[in-house]
Write a sequence for this structure.
């Protein structure tokens, strides 16, 4: 007995989710960030972010199809983290790494925030 | 599944959703 492990399965699944997002297929929530709108899949947001987990695990919010984030959240930082959720790649431009770190802290994505912090320290 | 007679398949595992139809 044993199994055949398809080593690239996780990546293939995530790539398909990103294709669905880019075509707005089966997206079930719109996130409003300081005037910008992002379509996404709740399941991916909840799987990647402690903040969204706490929002959508609340039965009152489970059926929400749109939520607005605190105005202090930077749309560029959110965009970078949303792309990360769907690609596993974190876009790190020097000019945006602090915004990305602060947004990761807000979204309760501690491992990403720690990585940004280490990146910032390594640059100074 | 690590270890117990695991055969690793490196190829694609599922269909690829196209960028557009």
């Amino acid at each position: 007995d044993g199994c055949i492990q398809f080593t690239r399965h996780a990546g293939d699944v995530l790539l398909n989710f990103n294709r669905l997002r880019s075509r707005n297929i089966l997206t079930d929530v719109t996130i409003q960030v300081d005037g910008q709108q992002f379509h996404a899949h709740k399941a991916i947001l909840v799987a990647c972010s402690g903040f969204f987990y706490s929002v959508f695990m609340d039965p009152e919010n489970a059926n929400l199809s749109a939520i607005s984030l605190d105005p202090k959240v930077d749309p560029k930082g959110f965009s970078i983290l949303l792309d990360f959720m769907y690609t596993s790649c974190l876009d790190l431009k020097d000019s945006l790494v602090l915004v990305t770190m602060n947004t990761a802290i807000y979204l309760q994505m501690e491992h990403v925030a720690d990585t940004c912090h280490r990146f910032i320290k390594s640059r100074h | 599944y690590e270890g117990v007679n695991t055969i690793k398949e490196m190829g694609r595992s599922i269909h690829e959703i196209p960028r557009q139809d």
Remarks:
- Chain B has a mean pLDDT of 88.
- The interface with chain A takes residues 1, 4-20 of chain B (CB under 8 Å).
- The two ends of chain B are 36 Å apart (CA to CA).
